[in-house]
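Bumping with the actual sequence this time:
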Amino acid sequence: MNTYKKDILNKICYTELVYGRINKKLNLELSKDKIETLISEILLETNESEFIKKGKNIYITNTERKIRLTINSFYT
């Protein structure tokens, strides 16, 4: 089993497009810092078994928060 969680936590980066998409999807106006904190919290609390790679993306499903993150697998 791959350990996507550790790699993502160590190497995640954000673009302006990411911030815009998150605010649009959540219908909010969060600051960049708040978005990064939210994503980090979700990644940390989500079980490794919920990190599924399909094609070029890794899908992280957190059922408690009812949210799914999509991370490009070419994050390195």
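The tokens above came from a reply further down the thread. Residues 4-72 form one domain.
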